[in-house]
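Troubleshooting entry. Yesterday's outputs looked truncated, so today I'm pasting the complete records for two proteins to confirm everything comes through intact. If either block looks cut off, that's the bug. Protein one:
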Amino acid sequence: MLIPRQKTPALQLPTLDHGAFDVSAEQSERGTVICFYRGLHCPICATYLTEFQKRVADFAERGVSTIAVSSDGKERARAMADKIGAHTLRFAYDLPLTKAREWGLYISTSRGKTSIGIEEPALFSEPGLFLITPEQSLYYGAVQTMPFVRPHFSELVGALDFAIKNNYPARGEYIGTV
């Protein structure tokens, strides 16, 4: 389990159009939003990433970079980026499932073709949304066992405004005896 205010696992992946992504080398003022998505086969992911694409500028205005990540290969990642009209949202691909587990993501097995007629990979990770500080510590995290009911990017932008204004610390950091 990832712990707020603690360093996150390493994450180094190729991207479609922006060279290599390395969370430890990100150069943003306030951090990076990393959105792990299931893959091209997921119609809910396409809708979710479309909303993420619409909010890239909002995050950038607040000093936060953005990236979408999946275990899909380059061709499927490109197809998803094209499908959602990604112009400013970075896409990373080839996420090893061992790395997905390090990030606390759940892993699912294929059920064949989805409702949009695209074959699921044999294994793939379920969604996760994280805000990582420039020091590579966890500020916010949400992981899911299913593709449904994801955090809204507009709410995360609003939460950032509150956190910035009030110098609000990451919460959930206590790991002592309860």
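Protein two, checking that the full record survives here as well:
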Amino acid sequence: MCKDAIVFRNSPEAVTLEAGVAYMICTCGRSKGGVFCDGSHEGTQCLPKEVSVEKTKQYHICMCKTSGNFPFCDGTHSIYSDDEVGKAVKS
């Protein structure tokens, strides 16, 4: 988890990822769509996480940016209220 990250949303995003494709996943919470890096981390300590999956299917991507299994959702988003969306992640 990046200490400069913000909570993009307090629920996961279902995204179909294709096997063998390298994806750059947003870790900062500032990218426009919240899932894939668009360079919005510039000026922070955050760097995107490169992910490749073995099976093409739908995955639940962590949007709170604090999952213990990042970039995949582990339910950690439940610690964030709607008022905490857009604010700093809890360390």
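Both blocks look complete. Sanity check on protein two: The CA atoms of residues 12 and 78 lie 10 Å apart.
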